[in-house]
Amino acid sequence: MAKYSVHQQPIETLLTWIKSGEIAIPEIQRPFVWKASKVRDLIDSLYQGYPVGYIITWRNPDVKLKNGELSAGRKVLIDGQQRVTALTAAIVGQRVLDTNYKQISIRIAFNPLTEKFDVLNKAYENSPEWINSINPIINDEISISKAIRTYLTANPDANEELVEARIENLKRIKSKQVGIIELDHALDIDTVTEIFIRINQKGVVLSNADFVMSKIAADEQHGGNRMRKLVDYFCRLIVDKDFNKHILDNDHGFYAHDYYKAISWMATGHDTLYVPNYIDFLRVAFTYQFSRGRFSDLVALLSGRNFETRTYEGEIAERSFQRLSAGLLDFVNRTNYQRFTMLVTSTGLINSKLISSKNSLNFSYALYLKLRKDGLPDAEIQHYVKRWLIMSLLIGRYSGSSESMIDEDIKQINEKGVATYLTHMEQAHLGAGFWEFRLVSDLETSGTNNNAYNVYLAAQCNGRAHAFLAKSMQTSALIEQRGDIHHLFPKKYLIKHNFAQKLYNQVANYVYTEQSTNLKIGTMAPADYIGKVREQIELGTFDICTLSTSQELLDNLSQNDIPSSFLQATHLDYEAFLTERRQLMASKIRVFYEHL
Protein backbone atom coordinates (compact mmCIF):
# COMPACT_ATOMS: atom_id res chain seq x y z
CA MET A 1 0.00 0.00 0.00
CA ALA A 2 1.33 3.43 -0.94
CA LYS A 3 1.70 5.47 2.23
CA TYR A 4 1.47 8.83 0.48
CA SER A 5 1.36 10.59 -2.84
CA VAL A 6 3.40 13.62 -3.87
CA HIS A 7 2.15 16.14 -6.39
CA GLN A 8 2.47 19.80 -7.34
CA GLN A 9 -0.41 22.25 -7.39
CA PRO A 10 -0.56 25.94 -8.30
CA ILE A 11 -0.78 28.33 -5.34
CA GLU A 12 -4.16 29.43 -6.71
CA THR A 13 -5.56 25.90 -6.45
CA LEU A 14 -4.22 25.47 -2.91
CA LEU A 15 -5.83 28.72 -1.79
CA THR A 16 -9.11 27.72 -3.43
CA TRP A 17 -9.09 24.41 -1.53
CA ILE A 18 -8.54 26.26 1.73
CA LYS A 19 -11.26 28.80 0.98
CA SER A 20 -13.75 26.04 0.15
CA GLY A 21 -12.79 23.98 3.20
CA GLU A 22 -11.46 21.01 1.23
CA ILE A 23 -8.26 21.47 3.21
CA ALA A 24 -8.88 22.38 6.84
CA ILE A 25 -6.31 24.53 8.61
CA PRO A 26 -6.42 23.31 12.18
CA GLU A 27 -4.70 26.18 13.97
CA ILE A 28 -6.10 29.23 12.21
CA GLN A 29 -7.10 30.85 15.52
CA ARG A 30 -3.61 30.48 16.97
CA PRO A 31 -0.95 33.18 16.76
CA PHE A 32 1.03 33.52 13.55
CA VAL A 33 4.62 33.09 14.69
CA TRP A 34 6.48 33.91 11.47
CA LYS A 35 8.14 37.30 11.28
CA ALA A 36 6.83 39.53 8.48
CA SER A 37 10.30 39.37 6.89
CA LYS A 38 9.87 35.61 6.51
CA VAL A 39 6.60 36.19 4.64
CA ARG A 40 8.51 38.58 2.36
CA ASP A 41 11.17 35.92 1.69
CA LEU A 42 8.51 33.32 0.86
CA ILE A 43 6.92 35.66 -1.73
CA ASP A 44 10.34 36.47 -3.17
CA SER A 45 11.12 32.76 -3.57
CA LEU A 46 7.85 32.21 -5.42
CA TYR A 47 8.53 35.20 -7.67
CA GLN A 48 12.03 33.89 -8.46
CA GLY A 49 10.71 30.39 -9.12
CA TYR A 50 12.55 28.82 -6.21
CA PRO A 51 11.06 25.81 -4.35
CA VAL A 52 9.24 26.72 -1.13
CA GLY A 53 9.01 23.30 0.48
CA TYR A 54 6.13 20.91 0.91
CA ILE A 55 2.94 21.00 2.88
CA ILE A 56 1.62 17.74 4.33
CA THR A 57 -2.06 16.83 4.35
CA TRP A 58 -3.74 13.75 5.77
CA ARG A 59 -7.13 12.85 4.41
CA ASN A 60 -9.72 11.85 6.97
CA PRO A 61 -11.20 8.42 6.25
CA ASP A 62 -14.48 8.09 4.39
CA VAL A 63 -17.33 7.78 6.91
CA LYS A 64 -20.33 5.49 6.53
CA LEU A 65 -23.58 7.42 7.05
CA LYS A 66 -26.83 6.09 8.50
CA ASN A 67 -28.28 5.55 5.03
CA GLY A 68 -25.29 3.45 4.03
CA GLU A 69 -23.68 6.10 1.85
CA LEU A 70 -20.02 7.07 2.18
CA SER A 71 -19.08 10.64 3.01
CA ALA A 72 -15.69 11.66 1.61
CA GLY A 73 -13.21 12.78 4.24
CA ARG A 74 -11.62 16.25 4.22
CA LYS A 75 -7.91 16.84 4.01
CA VAL A 76 -6.39 18.13 7.24
CA LEU A 77 -3.25 20.23 7.05
CA ILE A 78 -0.79 18.72 9.55
CA ASP A 79 2.38 20.52 8.47
CA GLY A 80 2.86 23.80 6.65
CA GLN A 81 0.18 25.78 8.46
CA GLN A 82 2.42 28.82 8.98
CA ARG A 83 3.46 28.75 5.33
CA VAL A 84 -0.14 28.53 4.14
CA THR A 85 -1.19 31.30 6.55
CA ALA A 86 1.63 33.46 5.15
CA LEU A 87 0.27 32.92 1.64
CA THR A 88 -3.29 33.78 2.60
CA ALA A 89 -2.05 36.88 4.45
CA ALA A 90 0.18 38.21 1.68
CA ILE A 91 -1.82 37.13 -1.36
CA VAL A 92 -5.45 37.09 -0.19
CA GLY A 93 -5.01 39.85 2.40
CA GLN A 94 -6.41 37.75 5.26
CA ARG A 95 -5.60 39.20 8.69
CA VAL A 96 -3.68 37.05 11.17
CA LEU A 97 -3.29 36.96 14.95
CA ASP A 98 -0.05 38.21 16.44
CA THR A 99 1.48 36.78 19.64
CA ASN A 100 -0.84 39.02 21.66
CA TYR A 101 -3.87 37.64 19.81
CA LYS A 102 -4.45 40.96 18.04
CA GLN A 103 -5.58 40.90 14.41
CA ILE A 104 -3.01 42.42 12.08
CA SER A 105 -2.45 42.73 8.33
CA ILE A 106 0.85 41.81 6.71
CA ARG A 107 1.37 43.97 3.62
CA ILE A 108 4.20 43.07 1.30
CA ALA A 109 5.44 45.87 -0.99
CA PHE A 110 7.12 45.36 -4.39
CA ASN A 111 9.55 47.48 -6.40
CA PRO A 112 9.29 46.51 -10.10
CA LEU A 113 12.46 48.46 -10.98
CA THR A 114 14.71 46.48 -8.61
CA GLU A 115 12.49 43.37 -8.30
CA LYS A 116 12.71 43.64 -4.53
CA PHE A 117 10.04 42.72 -2.00
CA ASP A 118 9.81 44.10 1.53
CA VAL A 119 7.41 44.60 4.40
CA LEU A 120 5.53 47.85 3.85
CA ASN A 121 6.72 50.78 5.92
CA LYS A 122 6.26 54.58 5.77
CA ALA A 123 9.26 55.10 3.48
CA TYR A 124 7.96 52.64 0.88
CA GLU A 125 4.42 53.95 1.28
CA ASN A 126 5.61 57.45 0.33
CA SER A 127 7.85 56.25 -2.51
CA PRO A 128 6.31 56.07 -6.03
CA GLU A 129 8.77 53.29 -6.94
CA TRP A 130 7.09 50.84 -4.55
CA ILE A 131 3.72 49.16 -5.04
CA ASN A 132 2.26 49.34 -1.53
CA SER A 133 0.64 45.92 -1.47
CA ILE A 134 0.96 42.97 -3.82
CA ASN A 135 -2.29 41.25 -2.92
CA PRO A 136 -4.74 43.40 -4.99
CA ILE A 137 -2.70 42.60 -8.11
CA ILE A 138 -2.13 38.88 -7.45
CA ASN A 139 -5.67 38.40 -6.15
CA ASP A 140 -7.39 40.01 -9.20
CA GLU A 141 -8.79 42.94 -7.23
CA ILE A 142 -7.40 45.28 -9.90
CA SER A 143 -6.63 44.42 -13.50
CA ILE A 144 -3.03 44.03 -14.53
CA SER A 145 -3.36 46.75 -17.18
CA LYS A 146 -4.63 49.22 -14.57
CA ALA A 147 -1.78 48.29 -12.20
CA ILE A 148 0.77 48.93 -14.96
CA ARG A 149 -0.82 52.28 -15.97
CA THR A 150 -0.99 53.46 -12.36
CA TYR A 151 2.67 52.61 -11.80
CA LEU A 152 3.90 54.27 -15.01
CA THR A 153 1.91 57.42 -14.21
CA ALA A 154 3.70 57.64 -10.86
CA ASN A 155 7.07 56.80 -12.49
CA PRO A 156 7.06 58.45 -15.97
CA ASP A 157 10.79 57.83 -16.55
CA ALA A 158 10.52 54.07 -15.96
CA ASN A 159 11.08 51.58 -18.79
CA GLU A 160 7.55 50.63 -19.81
CA GLU A 161 8.41 47.15 -21.14
CA LEU A 162 10.44 46.31 -18.04
CA VAL A 163 7.66 47.43 -15.67
CA GLU A 164 5.06 45.54 -17.68
CA ALA A 165 7.12 42.32 -17.67
CA ARG A 166 7.79 42.49 -13.93
CA ILE A 167 4.22 43.23 -12.87
CA GLU A 168 3.07 40.37 -15.10
CA ASN A 169 5.62 38.12 -13.38
CA LEU A 170 4.27 39.29 -10.02
CA LYS A 171 0.79 38.34 -11.18
CA ARG A 172 2.03 34.84 -12.09
CA ILE A 173 2.92 34.05 -8.45
CA LYS A 174 -0.52 32.44 -8.12
CA SER A 175 0.37 29.95 -10.82
CA LYS A 176 3.67 28.94 -9.18
CA GLN A 177 3.72 25.39 -7.89
CA VAL A 178 3.78 24.19 -4.30
CA GLY A 179 4.52 20.60 -3.33
CA ILE A 180 1.77 18.68 -1.53
CA ILE A 181 2.40 15.39 0.24
CA GLU A 182 -0.94 13.69 0.80
CA LEU A 183 -0.84 10.90 3.36
CA ASP A 184 -3.17 7.96 2.87
CA HIS A 185 -6.25 7.95 5.10
CA ALA A 186 -5.66 4.32 6.11
CA LEU A 187 -2.37 5.11 7.86
CA ASP A 188 -2.27 4.92 11.64
CA ILE A 189 -1.00 7.85 13.68
CA ASP A 190 2.36 6.25 14.49
CA THR A 191 3.14 5.86 10.79
CA VAL A 192 2.00 9.41 10.03
CA THR A 193 4.23 10.71 12.83
CA GLU A 194 7.20 8.78 11.50
CA ILE A 195 6.69 10.18 7.97
CA PHE A 196 6.31 13.68 9.40
CA ILE A 197 9.58 13.45 11.34
CA ARG A 198 11.50 12.04 8.37
CA ILE A 199 10.23 14.73 6.00
CA ASN A 200 10.61 17.59 8.45
CA GLN A 201 14.37 18.10 8.62
CA LYS A 202 14.07 20.56 11.50
CA GLY A 203 13.29 17.58 13.71
CA VAL A 204 10.02 19.07 14.93
CA VAL A 205 8.08 16.70 17.17
CA LEU A 206 4.50 16.01 16.15
CA SER A 207 2.55 14.65 19.11
CA ASN A 208 -0.63 12.61 19.00
CA ALA A 209 -2.26 15.47 20.89
CA ASP A 210 -1.55 17.66 17.83
CA PHE A 211 -3.50 15.17 15.70
CA VAL A 212 -6.42 15.41 18.11
CA MET A 213 -6.35 19.20 17.96
CA SER A 214 -6.18 19.11 14.16
CA LYS A 215 -9.04 16.65 14.09
CA ILE A 216 -11.41 18.64 16.26
CA ALA A 217 -10.46 22.02 14.74
CA ALA A 218 -11.21 20.74 11.24
CA ASP A 219 -14.66 19.53 12.28
CA GLU A 220 -17.64 21.84 11.84
CA GLN A 221 -20.37 19.20 11.62
CA HIS A 222 -20.11 18.26 15.32
CA GLY A 223 -18.86 21.60 16.65
CA GLY A 224 -15.24 20.51 16.87
CA ASN A 225 -14.02 23.93 15.72
CA ARG A 226 -15.70 25.52 18.75
CA MET A 227 -14.39 22.73 20.97
CA ARG A 228 -10.88 23.63 19.88
CA LYS A 229 -11.47 27.21 20.97
CA LEU A 230 -12.81 26.01 24.31
CA VAL A 231 -9.49 24.26 24.93
CA ASP A 232 -7.27 27.07 23.65
CA TYR A 233 -9.19 29.88 25.30
CA PHE A 234 -9.42 28.26 28.73
CA CYS A 235 -5.69 27.49 28.79
CA ARG A 236 -4.98 31.07 27.77
CA LEU A 237 -7.35 32.59 30.37
CA ILE A 238 -5.58 30.77 33.20
CA VAL A 239 -2.37 32.70 32.51
CA ASP A 240 -3.69 35.84 30.77
CA LYS A 241 -6.82 37.46 32.20
CA ASP A 242 -6.71 40.24 29.59
CA PHE A 243 -7.42 37.62 26.92
CA ASN A 244 -11.07 37.73 27.96
CA LYS A 245 -11.34 41.15 26.30
CA HIS A 246 -10.01 39.65 23.07
CA ILE A 247 -12.82 37.08 23.11
CA LEU A 248 -15.46 39.74 23.78
CA ASP A 249 -14.10 42.07 21.07
CA ASN A 250 -13.17 39.60 18.35
CA ASP A 251 -15.10 36.33 18.73
CA HIS A 252 -18.77 37.15 19.13
CA GLY A 253 -19.80 33.68 17.96
CA PHE A 254 -17.86 31.98 20.75
CA TYR A 255 -18.95 34.59 23.29
CA ALA A 256 -22.59 33.73 22.56
CA HIS A 257 -21.97 29.98 22.93
CA ASP A 258 -22.41 27.91 26.09
CA TYR A 259 -18.69 27.10 25.94
CA TYR A 260 -17.85 30.69 26.82
CA LYS A 261 -20.29 30.62 29.74
CA ALA A 262 -18.49 27.50 30.99
CA ILE A 263 -15.04 29.13 31.03
CA SER A 264 -15.87 32.78 31.71
CA TRP A 265 -15.27 32.35 35.45
CA MET A 266 -11.56 31.88 34.77
CA ALA A 267 -11.35 35.50 33.55
CA THR A 268 -11.35 36.46 37.23
CA GLY A 269 -10.24 33.12 38.67
CA HIS A 270 -6.77 32.50 40.01
CA ASP A 271 -4.74 29.31 40.00
CA THR A 272 -1.02 28.71 39.85
CA LEU A 273 -1.00 25.16 41.19
CA TYR A 274 -2.53 23.37 38.20
CA VAL A 275 -1.94 25.23 34.95
CA PRO A 276 -2.87 22.79 32.16
CA ASN A 277 -1.84 23.20 28.55
CA TYR A 278 -3.96 21.84 25.70
CA ILE A 279 -2.38 18.38 26.00
CA ASP A 280 -3.24 18.16 29.71
CA PHE A 281 -6.77 19.38 29.02
CA LEU A 282 -7.37 16.76 26.35
CA ARG A 283 -5.67 14.06 28.41
CA VAL A 284 -7.99 14.50 31.37
CA ALA A 285 -11.22 14.83 29.35
CA PHE A 286 -10.40 11.83 27.16
CA THR A 287 -9.21 9.52 29.95
CA TYR A 288 -12.21 10.39 32.11
CA GLN A 289 -14.86 10.10 29.42
CA PHE A 290 -13.55 7.23 27.32
CA SER A 291 -11.57 5.19 29.90
CA ARG A 292 -8.65 5.08 27.50
CA GLY A 293 -5.18 6.58 27.55
CA ARG A 294 -3.91 6.62 23.96
CA PHE A 295 -4.60 9.74 21.92
CA SER A 296 -4.41 7.63 18.76
CA ASP A 297 -7.63 5.92 19.94
CA LEU A 298 -9.29 9.32 20.35
CA VAL A 299 -8.38 10.35 16.80
CA ALA A 300 -9.82 7.05 15.55
CA LEU A 301 -13.03 7.47 17.57
CA LEU A 302 -13.52 11.06 16.39
CA SER A 303 -13.10 9.72 12.85
CA GLY A 304 -15.90 7.21 13.53
CA ARG A 305 -13.69 4.15 13.92
CA ASN A 306 -15.51 0.91 14.73
CA PHE A 307 -12.72 -1.14 16.31
CA GLU A 308 -14.61 -4.41 15.75
CA THR A 309 -15.54 -4.04 12.07
CA ARG A 310 -12.57 -1.77 11.23
CA THR A 311 -14.87 0.61 9.39
CA TYR A 312 -15.70 4.27 9.98
CA GLU A 313 -19.26 5.14 10.96
CA GLY A 314 -20.87 8.55 11.27
CA GLU A 315 -22.80 7.61 14.43
CA ILE A 316 -19.60 6.67 16.27
CA ALA A 317 -17.98 9.97 15.27
CA GLU A 318 -21.05 11.89 16.47
CA ARG A 319 -21.13 10.09 19.83
CA SER A 320 -17.39 10.54 20.29
CA PHE A 321 -17.57 14.30 19.73
CA GLN A 322 -20.47 14.50 22.19
CA ARG A 323 -18.54 12.56 24.85
CA LEU A 324 -15.39 14.63 24.34
CA SER A 325 -17.43 17.82 24.65
CA ALA A 326 -18.95 16.54 27.90
CA GLY A 327 -15.49 15.70 29.23
CA LEU A 328 -14.11 19.11 28.36
CA LEU A 329 -17.06 20.85 30.03
CA ASP A 330 -16.64 18.77 33.19
CA PHE A 331 -12.94 19.70 33.19
CA VAL A 332 -13.64 23.45 33.12
CA ASN A 333 -16.58 23.28 35.51
CA ARG A 334 -15.70 25.75 38.24
CA THR A 335 -16.78 23.51 41.13
CA ASN A 336 -14.87 20.51 39.78
CA TYR A 337 -11.72 22.46 39.02
CA GLN A 338 -11.55 24.35 42.30
CA ARG A 339 -12.45 21.38 44.48
CA PHE A 340 -9.77 19.32 42.80
CA THR A 341 -7.08 21.96 43.28
CA MET A 342 -8.15 22.35 46.93
CA LEU A 343 -7.86 18.58 47.33
CA VAL A 344 -4.33 18.66 45.89
CA THR A 345 -3.38 21.53 48.18
CA SER A 346 -4.73 19.63 51.19
CA THR A 347 -2.15 16.88 50.62
CA GLY A 348 0.61 19.43 51.22
CA LEU A 349 1.41 19.93 47.52
CA ILE A 350 0.88 23.65 47.92
CA ASN A 351 3.06 24.87 45.07
CA SER A 352 3.49 23.71 41.48
CA LYS A 353 7.25 23.38 41.99
CA LEU A 354 6.52 20.43 44.31
CA ILE A 355 4.79 18.55 41.49
CA SER A 356 7.31 17.30 38.95
CA SER A 357 4.88 15.05 37.07
CA LYS A 358 2.04 16.85 35.28
CA ASN A 359 0.57 13.50 34.25
CA SER A 360 0.19 12.49 37.90
CA LEU A 361 -2.00 15.57 38.28
CA ASN A 362 -3.81 14.87 35.01
CA PHE A 363 -4.64 11.29 35.90
CA SER A 364 -5.69 12.28 39.41
CA TYR A 365 -8.09 14.87 37.98
CA ALA A 366 -9.51 12.32 35.53
CA LEU A 367 -9.94 9.91 38.46
CA TYR A 368 -11.61 12.64 40.53
CA LEU A 369 -14.12 13.36 37.73
CA LYS A 370 -14.79 9.66 37.20
CA LEU A 371 -15.43 8.96 40.90
CA ARG A 372 -17.74 11.97 41.15
CA LYS A 373 -19.64 10.74 38.10
CA ASP A 374 -19.85 7.28 39.69
CA GLY A 375 -21.45 8.86 42.76
CA LEU A 376 -18.88 7.94 45.41
CA PRO A 377 -19.11 9.86 48.71
CA ASP A 378 -16.81 12.91 48.89
CA ALA A 379 -14.74 11.44 51.72
CA GLU A 380 -13.95 8.33 49.67
CA ILE A 381 -13.17 10.38 46.57
CA GLN A 382 -10.69 12.50 48.52
CA HIS A 383 -9.04 9.45 50.05
CA TYR A 384 -8.54 7.61 46.76
CA VAL A 385 -7.49 10.64 44.72
CA LYS A 386 -4.98 11.83 47.34
CA ARG A 387 -3.43 8.40 47.68
CA TRP A 388 -3.28 7.89 43.93
CA LEU A 389 -1.62 11.25 43.39
CA ILE A 390 1.06 10.74 46.05
CA MET A 391 1.61 7.08 45.13
CA SER A 392 2.06 7.90 41.44
CA LEU A 393 4.56 10.65 42.30
CA LEU A 394 6.56 8.44 44.66
CA ILE A 395 6.95 5.56 42.20
CA GLY A 396 7.29 7.78 39.11
CA ARG A 397 4.29 6.03 37.57
CA TYR A 398 4.00 8.33 34.55
CA SER A 399 7.65 9.22 34.02
CA GLY A 400 8.22 6.76 31.18
CA SER A 401 5.60 5.50 28.72
CA SER A 402 2.90 7.70 30.18
CA GLU A 403 0.19 6.89 27.61
CA SER A 404 0.59 3.14 28.19
CA MET A 405 0.48 3.56 31.97
CA ILE A 406 -2.56 5.86 31.83
CA ASP A 407 -4.34 3.45 29.50
CA GLU A 408 -3.61 0.50 31.78
CA ASP A 409 -4.57 2.29 34.99
CA ILE A 410 -7.91 3.69 33.85
CA LYS A 411 -8.94 0.35 32.32
CA GLN A 412 -7.98 -1.55 35.48
CA ILE A 413 -9.87 0.92 37.67
CA ASN A 414 -12.89 0.52 35.40
CA GLU A 415 -12.69 -3.25 35.58
CA LYS A 416 -11.74 -3.82 39.24
CA GLY A 417 -12.87 -0.65 40.97
CA VAL A 418 -10.60 2.00 42.41
CA ALA A 419 -10.34 0.43 45.92
CA THR A 420 -9.21 -2.97 44.65
CA TYR A 421 -6.80 -1.62 42.05
CA LEU A 422 -5.24 0.92 44.42
CA THR A 423 -4.65 -1.87 46.95
CA HIS A 424 -3.07 -3.96 44.16
CA MET A 425 -0.77 -1.05 43.23
CA GLU A 426 0.25 -0.52 46.86
CA GLN A 427 1.03 -4.18 47.33
CA ALA A 428 3.03 -4.28 44.11
CA HIS A 429 4.96 -1.01 44.55
CA LEU A 430 4.82 0.16 48.17
CA GLY A 431 5.98 -2.83 50.15
CA ALA A 432 8.54 -2.79 52.96
CA GLY A 433 11.36 -2.82 50.41
CA PHE A 434 10.12 0.44 48.94
CA TRP A 435 9.83 2.32 52.24
CA GLU A 436 13.01 0.99 53.79
CA PHE A 437 15.36 0.86 50.82
CA ARG A 438 14.20 2.38 47.55
CA LEU A 439 12.75 5.57 49.05
CA VAL A 440 15.83 6.08 51.21
CA SER A 441 17.93 5.57 48.07
CA ASP A 442 15.78 8.07 46.13
CA LEU A 443 16.58 10.66 48.80
CA GLU A 444 20.29 10.17 48.19
CA THR A 445 20.47 12.98 45.66
CA SER A 446 21.59 16.57 45.26
CA GLY A 447 18.68 17.44 42.95
CA THR A 448 15.75 19.26 44.53
CA ASN A 449 13.41 18.47 41.61
CA ASN A 450 13.10 14.96 42.96
CA ASN A 451 9.80 13.18 43.57
CA ALA A 452 10.83 11.75 46.93
CA TYR A 453 12.11 15.08 48.24
CA ASN A 454 9.09 17.00 46.93
CA VAL A 455 6.71 14.55 48.62
CA TYR A 456 8.75 14.94 51.82
CA LEU A 457 8.17 18.71 51.64
CA ALA A 458 4.46 18.04 51.04
CA ALA A 459 4.47 15.91 54.19
CA GLN A 460 6.08 18.82 56.05
CA CYS A 461 3.38 21.20 54.80
CA ASN A 462 0.63 18.70 55.53
CA GLY A 463 1.89 18.24 59.10
CA ARG A 464 2.29 22.02 59.58
CA ALA A 465 5.92 21.56 60.53
CA HIS A 466 7.76 24.63 61.71
CA ALA A 467 10.77 25.82 59.77
CA PHE A 468 14.16 24.93 61.21
CA LEU A 469 14.79 26.80 64.52
CA ALA A 470 11.56 28.79 64.01
CA LYS A 471 9.00 29.13 66.79
CA SER A 472 6.06 30.25 64.63
CA MET A 473 7.10 30.32 60.97
CA GLN A 474 5.94 27.19 59.13
CA THR A 475 7.78 25.48 56.28
CA SER A 476 4.69 25.93 54.08
CA ALA A 477 4.89 29.73 54.43
CA LEU A 478 8.52 29.76 53.29
CA ILE A 479 7.70 27.54 50.30
CA GLU A 480 4.79 29.79 49.31
CA GLN A 481 7.00 32.87 49.69
CA ARG A 482 9.69 31.22 47.54
CA GLY A 483 11.97 31.13 50.57
CA ASP A 484 15.47 29.76 50.31
CA ILE A 485 16.61 26.28 51.16
CA HIS A 486 19.55 26.32 53.58
CA HIS A 487 22.21 23.82 54.64
CA LEU A 488 22.06 22.19 58.08
CA PHE A 489 25.80 21.70 57.83
CA PRO A 490 26.75 25.06 56.28
CA LYS A 491 28.14 24.81 52.77
CA LYS A 492 31.27 26.87 53.44
CA TYR A 493 31.95 24.84 56.58
CA LEU A 494 31.87 21.60 54.58
CA ILE A 495 33.96 23.05 51.74
CA LYS A 496 36.58 24.06 54.31
CA HIS A 497 36.72 20.40 55.33
CA ASN A 498 37.12 19.23 51.70
CA PHE A 499 33.62 17.88 51.01
CA ALA A 500 32.69 17.82 47.30
CA GLN A 501 29.68 19.72 45.93
CA LYS A 502 27.72 16.54 45.24
CA LEU A 503 28.06 15.63 48.92
CA TYR A 504 27.43 18.95 50.65
CA ASN A 505 24.40 19.65 48.43
CA GLN A 506 22.54 16.47 49.40
CA VAL A 507 18.80 17.01 49.99
CA ALA A 508 19.23 15.39 53.43
CA ASN A 509 21.36 18.45 54.28
CA TYR A 510 18.62 20.85 53.19
CA VAL A 511 16.11 22.56 55.41
CA TYR A 512 13.82 25.58 55.18
CA THR A 513 14.65 28.27 57.71
CA GLU A 514 14.27 32.02 58.03
CA GLN A 515 17.00 34.04 56.33
CA SER A 516 17.93 35.88 59.54
CA THR A 517 18.60 32.55 61.26
CA ASN A 518 20.67 31.32 58.36
CA LEU A 519 22.83 34.48 58.39
CA LYS A 520 23.49 34.11 62.12
CA ILE A 521 24.50 30.47 61.66
CA GLY A 522 27.08 31.51 59.07
CA THR A 523 29.83 28.90 58.72
CA MET A 524 29.61 27.35 62.18
CA ALA A 525 29.53 23.60 62.80
CA PRO A 526 26.13 22.30 64.01
CA ALA A 527 27.57 21.59 67.46
CA ASP A 528 28.69 25.22 67.72
CA TYR A 529 25.54 26.98 66.57
CA ILE A 530 23.22 24.59 68.43
CA GLY A 531 25.39 25.26 71.50
CA LYS A 532 24.75 28.99 71.09
CA VAL A 533 21.01 28.34 70.71
CA ARG A 534 21.04 26.43 73.99
CA GLU A 535 22.93 29.22 75.72
CA GLN A 536 20.41 31.77 74.48
CA ILE A 537 17.52 29.64 75.69
CA GLU A 538 19.09 29.55 79.16
CA LEU A 539 19.72 33.32 79.15
CA GLY A 540 16.33 34.17 77.61
CA THR A 541 17.88 36.07 74.68
CA PHE A 542 16.82 35.72 71.04
CA ASP A 543 19.72 36.13 68.64
CA ILE A 544 19.96 33.10 66.36
CA CYS A 545 16.30 32.12 66.73
CA THR A 546 13.15 32.66 68.80
CA LEU A 547 12.93 29.22 70.46
CA SER A 548 12.50 29.73 74.19
CA THR A 549 12.77 26.26 75.78
CA SER A 550 14.90 23.14 75.39
CA GLN A 551 11.74 21.17 74.63
CA GLU A 552 10.88 23.53 71.79
CA LEU A 553 14.35 22.88 70.36
CA LEU A 554 13.90 19.10 70.54
CA ASP A 555 10.40 19.35 69.06
CA ASN A 556 11.72 21.50 66.21
CA LEU A 557 14.44 18.97 65.38
CA SER A 558 11.83 16.20 65.43
CA GLN A 559 9.46 18.12 63.11
CA ASN A 560 12.34 18.53 60.64
CA ASP A 561 13.43 14.90 60.99
CA ILE A 562 16.86 15.81 62.30
CA PRO A 563 18.49 13.09 64.45
CA SER A 564 19.39 13.97 68.03
CA SER A 565 23.06 13.25 67.26
CA PHE A 566 22.99 16.52 65.28
CA LEU A 567 23.17 18.47 68.58
CA GLN A 568 26.87 17.63 68.94
CA ALA A 569 27.70 17.08 65.25
CA THR A 570 30.85 18.21 63.42
CA HIS A 571 32.11 17.50 59.93
CA LEU A 572 33.31 14.10 61.18
CA ASP A 573 29.68 13.08 61.71
CA TYR A 574 28.34 14.45 58.39
CA GLU A 575 28.02 11.28 56.30
CA ALA A 576 26.50 9.29 59.18
CA PHE A 577 24.09 12.19 59.70
CA LEU A 578 22.97 12.03 56.04
CA THR A 579 22.25 8.31 56.31
CA GLU A 580 20.24 8.73 59.50
CA ARG A 581 18.27 11.74 58.27
CA ARG A 582 17.31 10.04 54.99
CA GLN A 583 15.80 7.20 57.02
CA LEU A 584 13.86 9.65 59.17
CA MET A 585 12.62 11.53 56.08
CA ALA A 586 11.47 8.26 54.49
CA SER A 587 9.65 7.32 57.69
CA LYS A 588 7.83 10.65 57.68
CA ILE A 589 6.73 10.13 54.08
CA ARG A 590 5.40 6.68 54.94
CA VAL A 591 3.38 7.92 57.93
CA PHE A 592 2.11 10.83 55.80
CA TYR A 593 0.98 8.50 53.00
CA GLU A 594 -0.70 6.02 55.32
CA HIS A 595 -2.76 8.80 56.92
CA LEU A 596 -4.08 10.21 53.63
Beta-strand content bin: 5-15%
* Rough outline: elongated
* Count of distinct strands: 15
Strand order of the largest sheet: 1-11-3-6-2
Largest sheet: 5 strands, mixed
State the helical fraction. Answer: 40-55%
Protein name: DUF262 domain-containing protein
Pfam families: GmrSD_N (PF03235)
Organism: Larkinella knui
Domain GmrSD restriction endonucleases N-terminal: 12-216
Describe this structure in words.
The protein is an alpha+beta fold. It has three domains: 196 residues, no CATH class; 223 residues, no CATH class; 144 residues, no CATH class. The chain is built from 30 helices and 15 strands. The strands form six sheets. It has a five-stranded mixed β-sheet with strand order 1-11-3-6-2, sandwiched between helices. It has a two-stranded antiparallel ribbon with strand order 4-5. A hairpin with a 5-residue loop joins β4 and β5. The two termini are 55 Å apart. This is DUF262 domain-containing protein. It comes from Larkinella knui.
